[in-house]
Amino acid sequence: MAIREKAFNTIIQCFKRHGAETIDTPVFELKETLTGKYGEDSKLIYDLKDQGGELLSLRYDLTVPFARYLAMNKITNIKRYHIAKVYRRDNPAMTRGRYREFYQCDFDIAGQFDPMIPDAECLKILHEILSELELADFLIKVNDRRILDGIFAVCGVPDTKFRTICSSVDKLDKTLWEEVKIEMVEKKGLASEAADQIGEYVQNNGGLDLIEKLLKDPKLSQNKLALEGLNDMKILFQYLELFGVTDKISFDLRLARGLDYYTGVIYEAEESVRLGSVAAGGRYDGLVGMFDPKGRKVPCVGFSIGMEKIFSIMERKAE
After folding, report:
1. Is 262 annotated as a binding residue?
2. Which pLDDT belongs to residue 38?
C-alpha cells in the first residue's frame, strides 16, 4: 500500500502544482452518453441491466463523463484532475496488465489558448510525473489525427474507411506491418497499393527533422489536414524543446489511438519493460459539443494514466 500511496501523492502534487482542481463524476452514465465515442473498443463497455426505464452503463473512462459535465454546467475554461475507477469488459487472463476495474488518473485543460500551449503543458506534466515515479525507461510517442487522416487521403483510402484503417494502424505497436497490411486488405477491403503507400509513411518516427521532411513531402504538403497537423506538430516540438523534455518524446506516425473522439494531437507513454502503454491522451475539441444542446464546442486536451500498470512497475522495482 505504501507504494500505491506514494504514486497517488506524487501525481496529485504534480497536478496541483500546475493549477488543477479536482472534480468528480458518476460511476455510471446513460448508455447513450457513452455510445459511439470509443470506436472498436465500444464492445468493452459494461451495460447495466435495464430496470424498467433508462439504459445505463458503467463509465469506460473519465474523459467522456468530463465532457458531459462541462456541457451540462456550461463550463468553458477549467484545468482539472480526476482520480477514480473505470470499468472495461477486458480479458485479464489473456492480456498482462489489463483489468476489468482499475484506477485512472486524468488531467485535462479545457478552454481557448494559443495553439499547442495546453498540449505542450500536458506532455510536460506527463514527463514530470513519469520521471518523479522513477520510470526510467519511458518513451512518449506523439502523433496527430489530422496527419494520419491526411496520409490516408493521399494514399487513396475512402473517407468511410478512415476510422477502421486507423484502428488497424493502431495495432502496429504490437503487430508486424505484414499482418496489419493483411487485415487492411483482406478484412477491411483496402486496395493493396493504398496499404503499401500507408506503410511507407507510418513506419517513420523522429523529431523536428521528420516534421520538416514531411512538410516538404509533395503529396502531404498539398493536403490541408496534414499540413495543419504538421505545422501544429512543429510548434509543439518547439515548445517541448523549450521545456527540455524532448529526450523522452518521439513523433511516431504509427500511433493512431483507436478512440473516435480525438481530433488533433494524440500521445501514448510506454514503459519499455514488457507492460506497454502506461498513459495516453490527446486533443478532443468536438466532444463537449456532442452534449451541448446548441452544439457549442469547447477545445479540450488531456491525458489518462493507468495506475495498475504503474503500481506493478513500481512494485517490481521495489523487490
Report:
1. yes
2. 64
Q: Are strands 249-252 and 138-144 parallel, antiparallel or unpaired?
A: parallel
* Long-range contact pairs involving 128-136 (C-beta distance under 8 Å, separation at least 24): 128/14, 129/10, 129/11, 129/14, 129/305, 130/248, 130/269, 130/271, 130/278, 130/279, 131/248, 132/10, 132/14, 133/7, 133/10, 133/11, 133/310, 133/314, 134/314, 134/317, 135/271, 135/278, 135/310, 135/313
Tell whether residue 70 is among the known ligand binding residues.
no
69 annotated as ligand-binding: no
Q: What is the pLDDT of residue 313?
A: 84
Cell triple for 81: 484532475
Pairing of strands 56-58, 205-206: unpaired
Q: Which amino acid is at 212?
A: E
> 75 is written with which cell numbers?
463550463
Angle between helices 145-154 and 162-169 (to 10 degrees): 110
Is residue 104 annotated as involved in ligand binding? yes
Q: Is 210 annotated as a binding residue?
A: no
Low-confidence ranges of the chain (pLDDT < 50): none
